[in-house]
Design goal:
With 339 residues, the chain is an alpha/beta fold. It is built from 15 helices and seven strands. It folds into two domains: 77 residues, Transferase, Pyrimidine Nucleoside Phosphorylase, Chain A, domain 3 (Up-down Bundle), CATH 1.20.970.10; 244 residues, Nucleoside phosphorylase/phosphoribosyltransferase catalytic domain (Pyrimidine Nucleoside Phosphorylase, Chain A, domain 2). It starts with 7 loop residues before the first helix and ends in a 9-residue tail after the last helix.
C-alpha cells in the first residue's frame, strides 16, 4: 500500500520512527532539514527511551552535529531532559548557586571554579555542583583530583561527612541517560547531549554558572534557559569550562527573569594580575604544594578571582568587585598578602 493510501493514524505513527528523523536531518549540509518543535521533542524522547538502534543513534547525532542544532531543536532536547529530571532537595541558604561542570574531556589539570565553590559556604552561599559522566576520554582527574585538593583551602568547608558543595551527576538526575553511555563513548565526539548536560540544573530555584567555548551556542543556550525560566551566567571560559580566563576578559551571557544580556569581567577590573599558567596539565601536580604552602601564589589569586565572580553570580554581591570585598571580609586567610 502506498503512503498516500494509508489512513492518517498509520502515517502519524510512521512519522515517529527513529529512521524518519535520521532521514530528515541526515541528508548532508545542503539537503538536510531542521526538525519542527514537535518532531524534535518526539525524536529526543525516543532517543532517551532507547528506541534508536545503535546505527540510527550515531547517524542522528552526527547529522545534528554537521547541520548544527537549531534553537527549536535545543529547546526540545531540554524539554525532554526536564520532563525526566529528578529535582533534588533545595540547597540550604538564603543565597545559593549551582556550578555546572558537565565536561568529560581533559581540558586542563584542575578546576579553579570548583575550588572556589568550596569557599562559597564561608560567604553565606549554599552550593551545588553538577558533573557529567566522562564517557569519551574517561577523564576524572580534573574533577575528582580538584575535589580532593579542596580540603587544603584556607577556611574551606570542614571535611566532615555531608559538608561542602552538594555533588550530583547528570546520569543520576536524568533517567535513561546512563543507558546511553556505551553508545556515546563509541561515537568518539561530543554531541548535542553534551550541550544539554551543561544546561541541567536539578536545583531549578538556584541560579547556575556554566561554561562553553562558542559565543553562538552561548546565546542559543541562554535563550533556552530564558524560555524555561532558568537564571544564571554562561561563561565563555577557559577551554569551554566554567573557569575564568585569567589573562584577559571573560565574556559572559547572563540570563535573569527571562532577559538575556552580554557582559564581561576581567582580572584588571578587580586590580588582579593573574597568569593562565596555573591551568596547564603540567602545573596541576603543583596545586597541592601551592595550597599547602603559606603565603600567596598564582593559584590562590585565581581562586580569589573565581570566588568574587561566583558571589556575584549568586546574587550575594552586586558586582565582582563587591564579591571580592565580601570574600576578603569572610575569608581573610585567602588574602595572605594583606595579613
Amino acid at each position: 500500500m502506498s503512503t498516500e493510501a494509508q489512513p492518517a493514524p498509520a502515517r502519524a505513527e510512521a512519522a515517529l520512527r527513529p529512521v524518519d528523523f535520521v532521514k530528515k536531518v541526515g541528508k548532508g549540509r545542503t539537503l538536510s532539514q531542521d526538525l519542527a518543535p514537535a518532531e524534535a521533542r518526539a525524536a529526543f524522547d525516543l532517543l532517551l527511551d532507547g528506541a534508536f538502534l545503535p546505527a540510527q543513534f550515531g547517524a542522528f547525532l552526527q547529522a545534528l552535529r554537521i547541520k548544527e542544532l537549531t534553537q527549536d531543536e535545543l529547546d526540545a532536547l531540554m524539554a525532554a531532559f526536564r520532563a525526566r529530571m529528578r529535582p533534588l532537595p533545595p540547597l540550604a541558604g538564603d543565597r545559593t548557586l549551582v556550578l555546572n561542570l558537565a565536561s568529560d574531556t581533559q581540558r586542563k589539570g584542575g578546576l579553579a571554579s570548583l575550588l572556589a565553590a568550596f569557599l562559597l559556604g564561608r560567604c553565606g552561599v549554599g552550593a551545588g555542583v553538577l558533573r557529567s559522566t566522562p564517557v569519551l576520554q574517561g577523564n576524572r582527574t580534573s574533577f575528582e583530583g580538584t575535589w580532593e585538593l579542596s580540603g587544603l583551602l584556607p577556611d574551606a568547608y570542614p571535611r566532615a561527612a555531608g559538608a561542602g558543595p552538594v555533588p550530583a551527576e547528570c546520569s543520576e538526575v536524568i533517567p535513561g541517560l546512563a543507558d546511553l553511555d556505551g553508545l556515546r563513548a563509541s561515537l568518539g565526539f561530543r554531541s548535542c547531549l553534551h550541550t544539554a548536560e551543561k544546561l541541567v540544573n536539578p536545583w531549578p530555584a538556584s541560579p547556575m554558572v556554566l561554561g562553553i567555548s562558542h559565543k553562538r551556542y552561548a546565546l542559543r543556550m541562554a535563550a533556552a534557559m530564558a524560555a524555561s525560566g532558568m537564571n544564571g551566567k554562561i561563561l565563555l571560559g577557559n577551554h569551554g569550562t566554567a573557569d575564568l580566563v585569567l589573562h584577559k576578559e571573560t565574556e559572559i551571557v547572563s540570563v535573569d527573569a527571562g532577559s538575556v544580556r552580554e557582559e564581561s569581567v576581567s582580572p584588571e577590573q578587580l586590580g588582579l594580575v593573574l597568569s593562565p599558567d596555573v591551568y596547564s596539565l603540567a602545573r596541576f601536580p603543583q596545586w597541592r604544594e601551592w595550597l599547602e604552602a603559606p603565603g600567596d601564589n598564582g593559584l590562590r589569586k585565581a581562586v580569589r578571582y573565581h570566588l568574587a565572580v561566583l558571589l556575584w553570580a549568586a546574587g550575594a554581591a552586586p558586582d565582582p568587585a563587591a564579591g571580592l570585598a565580601a570574600a576578603r571580609r569572610s575569608i581573610p586567610t585567602l588574602f595572605p598578602e594583606e595579613a
